[in-house]
Design goal:
Length: 208
Amino acid sequence: MRFRDRRHAGALLAEALAPLGLEAPLVLGLPRGGVVVADEVARRLGGELDVVLVRKVGAPGNPEFALGAVGEGGELVLMPYALRYADQSYLEREAARQRDVLRKRAERYRRVRPKAARKGRDVVLVDDGVATGASMEAALSVVLQEGPRRVVVAVPVASPEAVERLKARAEVVALSVPQDFAAVGAYYLDFGEVTDEDVEAILLEWAG
């Protein structure tokens, strides 16, 4: 399955989520690309949009290969294979660097859209795709600590390995789970960059 763009993916994802009977869902997008998908989902489900902030901890020399991720509370979630590719010292340094990026991004986004309460809510975590699952696992760790009523992970495309791990912690809706999973962008015709300014513009529409 290939998607025209992130909004097309969000529309299809909303259709798949509709039968779940979510009550006034809080749809949390993972910046940056996931926010575009989440915006479409929230609008079509009559929910509310916000972000959950996470940053990937990439491998030495290959930052797109996630060894783990840092959540907005500062916690580090490591993948089972992380120490095969980097030592503890590198992981701690890189996590500290990503926490600094997160702090700056939080200041920027929260000026536009104050954080929505998550306790007791039906929460949907949305990204534009899941490869290793590190970022989504970090997002789950953050949200589950805040007492939601129900948590659903919803993505257009995901690797089989990531889906299996995520299912142990939450409901998972994935439109496509290719056995020969490639990079997330391979499943989109248009996978253009999403900027911080794009995210802020979307959040501003929900700020009132």
